[in-house]
């Protein structure tokens, strides 16, 4: 079924992912209605309507659903039960079952391994004795993570030495935990893939990500890795989308090891920060593919006309560069409408395009970013 023009898409969450989805939806002739507890949200500012209220409140959810013809989400820490309630009223895409898997690192790893997508070796840890046993099996270094509600490096501890186990256990317990073998990765990559109700799959090229303070700093499109490795990653992401029966869009974050193996780290069933470059470097962005997939429109291939570097604007210092960014030819600016810059807060991003096949090396990229010249590159 194709959602007709002027229909309304409900988006759970009011952040920048919702904002950019709503902008893409508007271009396709749809309205968006946002559910958020935040009065002046980035998505709410560009949407046709907003339901202000708590994600957990059934009365609020019912009110929100009344405004929407189809519902999606831009935010993963919403309760799956809340989405179940919404799904009983309007179609929710991707399905609440997919959100459940992505919200729980154990369910996620079980799912990935069952779909023949390799991950770092892992063990579920529920007791202190199980932590000792898992460390004995996987060795150190290893990473201990809470299974739920972790993001941007929160809820995890790197274990290098047996003496660090007690402190990590005391900090992270009583949440259910998972121990992962440490991946000595050559680089971090990701793939954004859309899948339509008819099973059509469109996967963007594999990109490379660099982080600062556990927050995405830059994305390089395409990833500077062997073409076969990039293809392996795209095939894995497509397999994930197929195995989930996805209707919508998801991102798979992966590691590339020194010997060229690709290991999945996590999946996010929504547009992803590492896909923002697609707005400027592709005929149809990740946000357009997301909207097309959930609206039942035909999915074009996820082609790219340019190489690109995306740089996030995080916190006070980078946001203060906005006038310099605007004054620099070639930088494509995006700002999310957040009232106040704070440490660690994503305020906007900048894209720089290069002709297809000519992504420069580090010095060329630094020069092309002008005032945003990366430190430490
Ligand atoms: P996550 O919260 O799982 O996305 O992890 C945040 C970041 O921590 C990743 O982007 C990696 O840089 C690092 N990390 C997570 N898990 C591992 C691992 N098993 N081995 C090495 N680094 C990891």
Q: What tags apply to this protein structure?
A:
377 residues, alpha+beta, Rossmann fold, Dna Ligase, domain 1, D-amino Acid Aminotransferase, Chain A, domain 1, 3 domains, 9-stranded antiparallel sheet, 4-stranded parallel sheet, globular, binds adenosine monophosphate
Overall description:
By secondary structure, the protein is of the alpha+beta class. The protein has three domains: 85 residues, Rossmann fold (3-Layer(aba) Sandwich); 61 residues, Dna Ligase, domain 1 (2-Layer Sandwich); 184 residues, ATP-grasp fold, B domain (D-amino Acid Aminotransferase, Chain A, domain 1, 2-Layer Sandwich). 31% of the residues lie in helices and 28% in strands. It is built from 13 helices and 17 strands. Strands 9, 10, 11, 12, 13, 14, 15, 16 and 17 form a nine-stranded antiparallel beta sheet that branches. Strands 3-2-1-4 form a four-stranded parallel beta sheet, with helices on both faces. The longest helix is centred in the middle third of the chain and has 18 residues. It is globular and about 60 Å long. Adenosine monophosphate binds next to strand 14.
């Amino acid at each position: 079924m194709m959602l007709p023009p002027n229909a309304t898409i409900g988006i759970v969450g009011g952040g920048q992912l919702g904002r950019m989805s709503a902008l893409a939806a508007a271009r396709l002739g749809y309205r968006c209605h946002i559910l958020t507890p935040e009065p002046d949200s980035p998505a709410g500012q560009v949407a046709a309507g907003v339901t202000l209220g708590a994600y957990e409140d059934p009365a609020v959810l019912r009110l929100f659903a009344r405004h929407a013809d189809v519902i999606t989400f831009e935010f993963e820490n919403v309760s799956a039960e809340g989405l179940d309630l919404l799904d009983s009223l309007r179609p929710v895409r991707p399905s609440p079952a997919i959100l459940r898997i992505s919200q729980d690192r154990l369910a996620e790893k079980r799912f990935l391994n069952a779909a023949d997508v390799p991950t770092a070796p892992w063990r579920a840890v529920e007791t202190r004795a199980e932590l000792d046993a898992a460390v004995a099996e996987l060795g150190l270094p290893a990473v201990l993570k809470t299974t739920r509600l972790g993001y941007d490096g929160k809820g995890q501890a790197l274990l290098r030495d047996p003496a660090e186990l007690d402190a990590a256990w005391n900090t992270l317990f009583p949440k259910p935990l998972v121990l992962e073998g440490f991946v000595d990765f050559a680089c971090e990559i990701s793939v954004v893939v859309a899948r339509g109700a008819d099973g059509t799959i469109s996967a963007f090229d594999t990109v490379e990500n660099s982080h600062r303070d556990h927050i995405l700093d830059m994305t390089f499109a395409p990833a500077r890795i062997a073409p076969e490795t990039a293809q392996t990653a795209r095939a894995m992401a497509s397999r994930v989308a197929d195995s989930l029966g996805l209707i919508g869009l998801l991102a798979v974050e992966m590691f590339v090891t020194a010997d060229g193996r690709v290991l999945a780290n996590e999946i996010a069933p929504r547009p992803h920060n590492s896909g923002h470059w697609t707005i400027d470097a592709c005929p149809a962005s990740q946000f357009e593919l997301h909207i097309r997939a959930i609206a039942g429109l035909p999915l074009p291939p996820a082609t790219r006309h340019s190489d690109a570097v995306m740089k996030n604007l995080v916190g006070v210092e980078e946001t203060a560069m906005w006038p310099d960014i605007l004054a620099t030819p070639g930088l494509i600016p995006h700002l999310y409408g957040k009232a106040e810059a704070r440490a660690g807060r994503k305020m906007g991003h900048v894209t720089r395009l290069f002709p297809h096949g000519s992504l420069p090396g580090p010095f060329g990229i630094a020069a092309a970013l002008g005032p945003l010249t990366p430190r430490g590159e």
